[in-house]
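Issue: ligand-bound run for PXG - logging full I/O for the record.

Environment: standard queue, default settings, no custom constraints.

Inputs:
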Amino acid sequence: MAALEKRSGADWQELDKDHHLHPFTDHKALHEKKSRIITRAEGVYIFDADGNKILDGMSGLWCVNVGYGRDELVDAATAQMRELPYYNNFFQCAHPPSIELASMLQDVSQPQFNRVFFTGSGSESNDTIVRMVRRYWDLLDQPQRHTIISRKNAYHGSTVAAASLGGMKPMHEQSGLPIPGIVHIDQPYWFGSDQSLSPDEFGLLMARQLEEKIQELGADKVAAFIAEPIQGAGGVIVPPDTYWPQVQRICDEYGILLISDEVITGFGRLGEWFGADYFGTKPDLMPFAKGVTSGYLPLGGVLVSDRVGDVLIDKGGEFFHGYTYSGHPAGCAVAMENLRILQREKLIERVKNDIGPYLQNGWHKLAEHPLVGETRMVGLMGALELVKSRQPLERFDEKQGVGTICRDLLVDNGLVMRAVGDTIVVAPPFVLTHEEADELIEKAWLCLDLTQEAING
Ligand code: PXG
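Outputs:
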C-alpha cells in the first residue's frame, strides 16, 4: 500500500496511459483526456485521486448492491482465504463454500431451481448457457435443435459466445460474430419505436416476433430464447406489461427453453430476488453474476431448473465444460455473506417498498425538464431519454453526442450515471438513503440544465 500512496493522481494517469488497455475504450481518445483514477469508496460514494467525492449512481458496474465499505464481506473473504484460498470443484471434489452457496441459491430462487453451475463472471455464465442448452437437446436426441433466439441490443457479455448471444452490432462487426446458430429479434423498446401503437400493443407485436421467428426456423430447430428481464447495458429497456406473459406462453407452447439473464436484475435490483420473479416468468435457466457478491469478488453461475438438470444428470455422460474458478471458495464465501446481508437488512424489501418508490418519485419529476422525453424506473434500475423536442417528439442527431455531454457534466458535478447513446441510465446501491436520493435527483436536474446550456452553446 505504501508504495501506491507515494504516487499522485497524475503519476497514475501516466502509468495507466503507458501500460493499461481498458475494456470498451477508445484509447486514443482516453489518452488525450486521461482516465479518472478512483482510489477508495464508502457507502454510495467513490473518491478519486484528486479528492473528489462522487455519488455512484451505477453501483460500480451495476453490481455493488450492498454499497461500499462492508467489513462483513472483507472478513468473509479473509477467513475463507486463511482456511482454504483455492480448491477446484473438478474431478469429484467440492468444498464447503461452493456447496453451501449452491444450497442457499436454491432457497432464494423459484422452486424449479435446485442446482447451480458456477462460473467466474456473467460472460462465462452465458458461454455456459450456449454449451449447456445444446448439450440438453443432444441428450434428448434432438441435436438439430441448436438455434438460440436472442434480441437486438441485448448485452450478454464479451466472450465469443456471450457476445454472439448479445445483440450489439458494433461488437459483432469487430469480430465476425455471431457464431452460427444464434439469431436476433427486435427489442421491446416502445420509446424508440414510432410510437404509433400503445405500449401494450407494441409489447404484443414484439413478442409475436418471437413466435414468427420460431415458425420461420421450425420449432424443432429452436433450442432456447434468452433475454434480460429488462435490458441493462442496452439502455434500461423496460418491456410493456404485455410482453413477458406472451413470451412465456410462446416458449411453453413450442417447448423452447426460456433463459432469463439475471446478471443485472438478479439479487434484488427490481425489488424481488430475480427479474423473473418481478415479471412472473418461470425460466428454465438463469445466468447470474455481479450482485451475487455485490462485486466484492468475481463470481457468476447458472441456476439450472429440474427440467434441464434432471436430463443432464439422468442421461449420464460427462459435460466437458468448466472453469478453474468455477465456485471459487473466497467468491462463494463472500456471496453467502452478501446474501445474508440482503436478508438481514431486508434490502430487497427496501428496494421494493422504500428507497425504490422514493427514488422513482424524484426520477419521474425529471420528466418535467424540457430535455427529457421519458423517464423509466423499476426497483432501482432507471433511465431517462434526452430529446431535442418533446412535442412533437424529436431526437438528437446521434453525432452530437448529447448523452456523453450530459454524462461528463454529471461526473464533473459529483454523480456517476451512464450514457447509452442519449439515454442516461441509473442503478444506485440498495443502501441509498433518502437524502442521497435527493442529492442524486438535484444533481441530475442541475446537469440537465448544464447540458441544455452546453448544447445551446
Ligand atoms: N449479462 C448481462 C445482462 C450483463 O449486463 C453480462 C451478462 C456479462 O457479465 P460480465 O461479468 O462478464 O461482465 C452483463 C455485464 C455497461 C456494462 O456498460 C454492462 C455490463 C458489463 C460491462 C459494462 O452497462 N454487463
